[in-house]
Amino acid sequence: MPQEMLTSACAPAASPVEDRRAARTKRMLREAFARLIGERGLDGFSVGDLTERADINRGTFYAHYRDMADLLASFEDEIIASLLSLKPRIQAVTLTELLAFNRTGAPPAVTVHLFDLLREHGPLLLVLLSPRGDAAFQARLRDRICADLVRSVLYGKYTKDPEPLIEYYVAYYASALLGLIQRWLERGMPEASEHMARIMLSVMMLRPGDPIRLKEARR
Q1: In this structure, is the dihedral angle defined by the CA atoms of residues 111, 114, 118 and 119, taken in order, positive or negative?
Q2: Cβ neighbours of residue 178 closer than 8 Å, sequence gap 6 or more
Q3: What is the CA radius of gyration of the chain?
Q4: Overall number of domains in the chain
Q5: DSSP secondary structure string, 105-159?
Q6: Within a domain: residue 216?
Q7: At residue 5, does pLDDT exceed 50?
Q8: Which string of DSSP letters, residue by residue, matches 52-101?
Q9: Which H helix or E strand runs over 2?
Q10: Residue 12 — pLDDT band, cuts 50, 70, 90?
Q11: Domain interval for residue 169
């Protein structure tokens, strides 16, 4: 057996106590990180400021992250991965489901779950998408999450059409969807996830001349 495999096989697994401690440290850093970005901007504080606010020592920070850039990338990657986990379900939404929403106002379950996940990441997302946050992350969220949602409501024959107008259409509505999410976060996420899913789909499926009103679910 190769030495590295032997070493890995013999390495003790983390205990439940260690796992809980690591999760608590991460949660404290995440909360402190979000607060400091909101107060000072992404580049306005140091590792020392962060560890002081999170009430942990610098050694604990460096046991988990190389530097601030590593911590930022880790948190952002976690958010993107969480939302990307919905991609197969988003792509599987059918025209029949969308037409059913027009009739009943009941959104596909995956759109409700999307807002559940956005709420879960809400405090950090709010500051990352703010003027004090990370413009590169905003572009990732728009291009990797919002654009996929827009493509999911296109008729099948358009999803692979090379016509440039389609890409402009997707880009336009992806930016609009990101703006909708930002406004919800800025308002403190007062609407329930199902309500926001109905708002999102109502906006995306609105045609010129249609009255601007919410598709209410019919019980």
Answers
A1: positive
A2: 129, 138, 141, 142, 146
A3: 21
A4: 2
A5: ----HHHHHHHHHHHHTHHHHHHHTSTTS-HHHHHHHIIIIIHHHHHHTS-GGGT
A6: no
A7: no
A8: HHHT--HHHHHHH-SSHHHHHHHHHHHHHHHHHTTHHHHHT--HHHHHHH
A9: none
A10: low
A11: 74-204
Where does the pLDDT of residue 148 fall: very low under 50, low under 70, confident under 90, or very high at 90 and above?
Answer: confident
Q: Quick one: pLDDT band at residue 9, thresholds 50, 70, 90?
A: very low
Tokens of 32: 């402190």
Whole-prediction pTM: 0.83
Residue 105 backbone zone (phi > 0: left; psi -120 to 50: alpha; other: beta): left
Instruction: Kindly tell me the sign of the dihedral angle through the C-alpha atoms of 36, 41, 45, 46.
Output: positive
- Asked if residue 54 lies in contact with residue 146, where contact means CB atoms within 8 angstroms, the answer is no
Q: What CATH number did the domain enclosing 51 receive? A: 1.10.10
8 A C-beta contact, residue 148 and residue 142: no
Residues 12 and 78 in one domain: no
Rounded Cα gap, residues 93 and 63, in angstroms? 42
Neighbours of 37 (CB within 10 A): 23
Residue type, position 89, single letter? R
Q: Distance of alpha carbon 51 from its chain centroid, rounded? A: 25
**Which range, of 126-135, 142-151, 173-182, averages the lowest pLDDT?**
142-151
Token output for 138: 């905003």
